[in-house]
């Protein structure tokens, strides 16, 4: 009864402490268990070798089956059985996938949707920036007339340094606009090429499925 009462009180107190007194860590979503996969695989191989050795030398199974067996042939039998079991383990690991096919397809589709969303957002930002630059720094807006007005203002009291800075700034903004337009065109070309590749892949898969269906029907 005291243990039950202690556990109930501890559950409530720990829950209050975790939820109210401490900030919980942000939960990440790893793809797997990482290096532990290799550690468990190695542990499985070591366990196979250890168990086969114990069965071969200490259990007396081989001695009962083959009364006159020598230690050398016992060692040979242990090594053969160990290699056989390890081969079966490797074969099962090669045949059975780590991730089911439907899970892998959903992961690929999710990553594709994320890439498309990021591409659309970046394209929208670049296009809006390019439109804004083009509206303000159009060739018809910044021309010799505008520069002539600055020259007139300079004659009225504007310094030459201000005019030079203005011209330099206009040139730099025109260069930035051209760079943005080139980047947008490059991204559009990459995206178009990727779409074409995906369409070709889909057509090839459809052709393979049609061929398999035809073979099954025949």
Overall mean confidence score, pLDDT: 77
SSE run: HHHHHHH
Overall number of strands:
0
CA radius of gyration is 37 Å
Please state the structural category: mainly alpha
Q: What percent strand?
A: under 5%
Measured as a percent range, the helix fraction is over 70%
Apparent shape: extended
Intertermini distance: 73 Å
* Low-confidence blocks of residues: 136-162
- By DSSP (H or I, 4+ residues per run), the number of helices equals 7
Give a short account of the largest sheet: none
Protein architecture, described:
Helix content is 82%, strand content 0%. It has seven helices and no strands. The protein has helices at 2-21, 36-57, 61-65, 71-95, 101-136, 144-156, 160-217. It is extended, with a radius of gyration of 37 Å. The chain starts with a helix and ends with a helix.
Fill in the keyword field for this structure.
218 residues, mainly alpha, membrane, Anoctamin_TM, transmembrane
In short:
This protein is mainly alpha-helical. 82% of the residues lie in helices and 0% in strands.
Layout: helices, strands, pairs:
Blueprint (H helix, E strand, L loop, with lengths): L1 H20 L14 H22 L3 H5 L5 H25 L5 H36 L7 H13 L3 H58 L1
Helix pairs in contact: 2-4, 5-7
Protein name: Anoctamin transmembrane domain-containing protein
Subcellular location: Membrane
Organism: Aphanomyces astaci
């Amino acid at each position: 009864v005291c243990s039950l009462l202690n556990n109930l009180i501890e559950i409530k107190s720990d829950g209050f402490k975790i939820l109210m007194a401490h900030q919980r860590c942000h939960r990440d979503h790893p793809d797997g268990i990482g290096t532990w996969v290799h550690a468990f695989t190695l542990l499985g191989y070591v366990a196979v070798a250890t168990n086969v050795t114990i069965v071969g030398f200490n259990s007396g199974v081989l001695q009962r089956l083959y009364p006159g067996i020598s230690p050398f042939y016992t060692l040979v039998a242990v090594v053969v059985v160990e290699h056989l079991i390890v081969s079966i383990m490797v074969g099962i690991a090669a045949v059975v996938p780590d991730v089911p096919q439907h899970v892998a397809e959903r992961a690929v589709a999710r990553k594709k949707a994320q890439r498309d969303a990021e591409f659309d957002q970046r394209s929208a930002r670049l296009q809006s920036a390019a439109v804004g630059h083009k509206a303000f720094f159009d060739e018809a807006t910044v021309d010799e007339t505008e520069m002539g007005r600055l020259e007139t203002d300079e004659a009225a009291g504007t310094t030459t340094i201000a005019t030079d800075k203005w011209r330099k700034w206009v040139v730099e903004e025109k260069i930035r606009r051209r760079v943005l337009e080139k980047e947008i065109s490059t991204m559009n070309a990459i995206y178009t090429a990727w779409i074409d590749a995906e369409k070709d892949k889909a057509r090839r898969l459809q052709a393979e499925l049609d061929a398999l269906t035809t073979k099954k029907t025949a």
